[in-house]
Records
---
Amino acid sequence: MNIQAPIKHTAAEEVLFQSCEAANAAVACSEESQKLREAAVAQLRDNGFPTRRVESWHYTDLRAAVKQLSTPTGSRVSTPLLAGSKVLSADTHIAGVKIEPWSADKAQFAPLESDDAVGQINTALATCGSIATIEAGQTIDTPLSIENRGAHARNVVSIGAGASATIIESVSGDDGFSSDVTLISLAEGAKATYVATCEKGADAIQLGQLRVALGKDANLDIVIFNAGGRLIRREIIVLVEGEGSNLDIKGVNLIGGNSHIDVTTVLQHTVPNTVSEQLFRNISTGKGQGVFQGQIKVHQIAQKTDAQMACNTLLLSNDASFSAKPELEIFADDVICAHGATVAELDEDHLFYLCARGITERTARALLVEAFVDEAVEQIENEALVEALETRIGAWLEANG
Amino acid sequence: MLEIKDLHAKIAGTDTEIIKGLNLSVKAGEVAAIMGPNGSGKSTLSYILAGRDDYEVTSGDILFNGESILEMDPSERAAAGLFLAFQYPMEIPGVATMQFLKVAMNEQRKARGEEELKTPDFIKLVKEAAGDLEISMEMLKRPLNVGFSGGEKKRAEILQMKLLAPSLCVLDETDSGLDIDALKIVSEGVNSLRSPDRATIVITHYQRLLDYIVPDSVHVLSKGRIVKTGDKELAKELEANGYTDIIAEAAA
């Protein structure tokens, strides 16, 4: 066994440990939950915030980024993405949806990997969230929303057999350090669209994780929308563990100013006959830094897996950057797996063609950039959602283009 | 309408001169054909007219309605009434053809200080123009030129030309990639735009297109200069004898 000298904690890490104690004192829970929380804090004490030396954080140096740790001063009241949506809070009544008051014991803490810093931070600090179950067989037409208003939210969303729903999780706010982890499970034949949006101010650090388990013949569309922030990390960890299940991820990252946005996906196909498709479209401008890490693991018994992954980025300024790291681990021999990552500038030929028709260069650029991003969004089935996202994208490009 | 005076132009950032003292004058109402062998500078000329910054004009001038256009950017030239039908129209994913048409028409109107088109009026205009060119509304819902056949792309160019109603149309090898039926449709489209206050420059390799779009003047381009000018009979002579004699004669 290696003997390692304990690391010297940064000022921000010291504040983090104090916050952990405060969270502990504020939330009562069972001995079992308590042990899991303490274990998470111990992992954080051992390792501190991850640096580039941790492989899964190679492009995002959290330790360097978190200079000081402050609680968000309050969240902007953002307009809901979809009109008529209902918030999943304990005082909302929606037929077919069971909503329970949040408690640490219902937050499904679990032992964590040593490099799962988002999980550790959230486990140690979570004090709020939504606990909701879509009851088996129920079709919920009203869009449901989760607004992560507290600094550290932990949500549990279970979708019963044969049920269907559209859920939108949103986080906004101008500053501070926050995290959210959402555990999503789809039982046999369940169908859901899960949207996670993060629109943050220039000083905010936001760590998010979706941890998903897909049952037999389940169908899940995930839509990711990230814009702004000082540092945003969004992890999507999916166990495709039900035969015949289908996962579709569409993502848009709008990276400008001094933002650093990192999307990391880890998909495990553990059974035969499953499908996953990922498509990300990113804009990096100003001094924006973008990261995409996409890992697909296909287990040996998971024959007939069809896993596709694409990540396309437009760089609009000389100081902008984007790093993409696709990673496939395939142990089955009868699978279709493909990945593609492109980073490019606007096509001058396209620009000239539009300008030659009398479209000013400024308008032509905006048209091409918007078209590039919208291509990912337009493939989403829900038209209201497509329209809502295109409106947000248009507004961001107007302000940052 | 168009006057090109002793034009010299090179590929930007290099010393490669492509246009070497070109003179050409096209009057309102005139259809001028420019013919010439590969590499004579035909497409370069069309790009320079449209304002592509891959080429740099080193001397001479281009006057459009009496004013130099050299300092104008491509969108300003288009709004002033110049239209280039591309030899290879760009496929632009994600931009719906209808959206593109509307933005282009309204940007030009805006540049000229005119009011923007209202959507119903716009749709009516497109439907009329598209019908004549056998372009379905289904095709116009698709992203611009994406997955269009060669013929569809050229018809879409002519549709844009009809809708934007330029005063100078430059057609760069519009006949390339067209079968005979598509050639007829495209030619009819171009002919329907002939009018006393509009000029057309048809750039082509072959005389075939000129059977359908009959030119008033024919100019032979070789090594960046117009080496011979004549009427439509000159095109037939070229078709029969090739370029070699004329170019040799000019060099002598």
---
Amino acid sequence: MTMETPFAITLPVGSSLANRTGSWRVERPVYVDLLPPCNDACPAGENVQGWLYAAEEGDYEAAWRALVADNPMPAVMGRACFRPCETACNRAKLDQAVGINAVERFIGDFAIEKGLGFDRPATATGKHVLVVGAGPAGLSAAYHLRRLGHAVTIYEAAELPGGMMRYGIPAYRLPRDILDAEVGRVVDLGIDLQLGHPVEDLAATLEEAKAAGRPFDAVFLGVGAQTAKRAYIPAGDSARVLDALSLLRSVTEGERPLLGRRVAVYGGGDTAMDAARTAKRLGATEAVIVYRRNRERMPAHPEELEDALGEGVKVKWLSTITHVAEGTLLLEKMELDETGFPRPTGETEELDADAVVLALGQESDLSLVANLPEVKVDNGWLSVGPDQMTGRAGIFAGGDVVGQDMTVTTAIGHGKRVARAIDAYLAGSRYERPARHALAGFDRLNTWYYSDAPRTVRPRLDAARRVSTFDEVVQGLDADTALFEARRCLSCGNCFECDNCFGVCPDNAVVKLEQAVRGEGDVFASGGAGRHYAFDYDYCKGCGLCAQECPCGAIVMEPERA
Amino acid sequence: MPYQRAKFYQVGSFAVGNRLLAPSERTVQSSLARTNSLTSGHRACQGCGEALAARYVLDAAMAATGGKVVVVNATGCLEVFSTPFPETSWRLAWLHSLFGNAPAVASGVAAALKAKGRADVRVVAQGGDGGTVDIGFGTLSGLFERNDDVLYVCYDNQAYMNTGVQRSGSTPPAARTATTEALGPEPGNVFGQGKDLPAIAMAHGIPYVATASVADLHDLEYKVERAMAFRGARYLHVLVPCPLGWKSATAETVRLARLAVESGLFPLLEAEAGEVVAVTPLRHRVGVEEYLRPQGRFAHLFRGAGRPDIVARIQQVADRNIARYGLVQEAGE
């Protein structure tokens, strides 16, 4: 070997590159994208980690665009969602869950304030889809269908769009200007929204459209569950009994129903909480929830119960109403058997109440499909397959009408899934949900690297003030606190470019992408953010330090092939 | 700590880099422009802490001096694995003479540079714990006494690893090495021997002494940069876990260094002119057992009924460090 080196230099600089130490390796590191628990838990299928990644950089428009790829109504979500993402959040095991919902609301409000609009659909497919119901499921389906290039007509029975978002969620939780802004933006995509247009016989509606020369190629039924369930309670003539849905609806329509000073609410779901809090706002000095089981078995979300209790709402646990008379109720005490089912005890007590609000659940009015025998009904709900299609080809359903986990977020998720299923159906195929990535559990994280930072607690109006008005209760984040909160995201299972692998490799075998290929002189060109890294398997010895020190678990070691 | 950690970024405070940090807040190692002083193809074992630390330290020194560094290396793993003839992994001016004379050679290089009027070129000498605390100790003490303008860096893996894991003056008590077998009532290395070289360096009253670990890069780079701001003799002692000699998993190198620090067994400190001026407080204090258990060299302390008495003695060493340097601080980081 001849050496051309300057005086007193005995070895060519960096000449060890001739020694390919990659041959030592028995395991190789591989970059992976895992499913963060927040994404996994989101009923609307949001890429939470993905949009937080953009929000961390303060690029709220990019964050909003990433968010609305899955969910067109972030400002509504930021107020009405029960945030299963935060329940799942790995950060909860470290200090407290990331305030995902608060950031989502901030991003949604930011978009409204800046007047951001959706991208118009690039192509027109020539297909025409009927959406029945302008609630969260219908609007979500219409939005996604429109973005896929299909023409969409919505028939909505009510005079205003929004469904349960408008008629079921009180204004103190979801201000109407926010709802109007986000619904309006969906409709502005070029959706033909026909209000005050109930569909009573779907078969006839489809025939009329065909006869009129503008047939529907597919249908989505998102009619919700608009009818309050009743229970038979013996009542005296002058007893004031009404249902929670009617109460919430009439308040939305600007009425102030007379309930009296003492109001009892019968039921244990979120609607019961809303009804009790609404009664307080209407002037009741006492609002008492009567529920037949105990706190552990209550279907309402714990936070909703806490908020209600914080406003002075009282709860009579393990009680049923057996008789209603003017000014007084007869309650019977219950006890739970070993399966958790409430059994009467025969012991009774009286409760003073001027009115009783029944919040005993909702059901769907399915008379519109009575003339379509292939559309099956199961236990009061429409029966659908994994792609949300009913027994009749081309007719799909989602949201409350299929009777699963009846929340706004689930309905929005159904809308998205249905849009994809309809898109596949219109193209002559069947939609199959893509395989999910492996979950990024807490044990995959190296939490040492995450800075300790407490959660920004949303300031709340004090209870006294909030009870007397329909103003929004939970205040939002400002730009600084939103950024802080977004940056608490651990980015579970997805590289966020912390450079740890690039740094901790003893063999310089991690390259930042867009870096020049290693060559003579070992010169590196500039690399850029967002391009991640690659392993240089010529030199990687497979020690596993990169995988061990990756904060977010985005590197796995795989056995080297022989 | 005299420097401010970045706050409220996912990992900005402790990871190598972060896309959200201003470039000035990022480490040298996060940069594409880092020197890669020790490049690929070297023959260090998988997961070598010393190879990692040498690149960390020298890249930081290169960044702090605008690339004007001459390195003098003692004999040891670092020299052997980086320069098997006819290859070298070094990408800076580097020379090696003998096991025990690296400080003397560095003094000579510094003198030559001074004679040539090249005060801009800085000298870094480096070696393992064997070459530093034992074999090169005399010449190192001379360098300190003369206050020659050299930064001496000891990469401490706590034994002679290259020759087969023999005990050095830096081997911790109870550790098994080839010359301190885990036999008899007092298995492994004895208690009460060995040298605390950072303290000895401080006793020379030289301008700057610091300890660092491969587990805290921001801290390490800060200390190298700080050292290069002084003229005269400076000493940096870096803990570098060795998967071979410590009988630990190759992927655990950084984690073990972190546990050594967080247990209090390896305090991170800075001293100027013989006085401690700053310590890095423990962030998540752990007991010594958490540090000792993953290491095969301490396996005899946990086999069968184990030796909780010896573990307790090691815990006392950690507790003494924590009290002596005030490593547990009340509020915040």
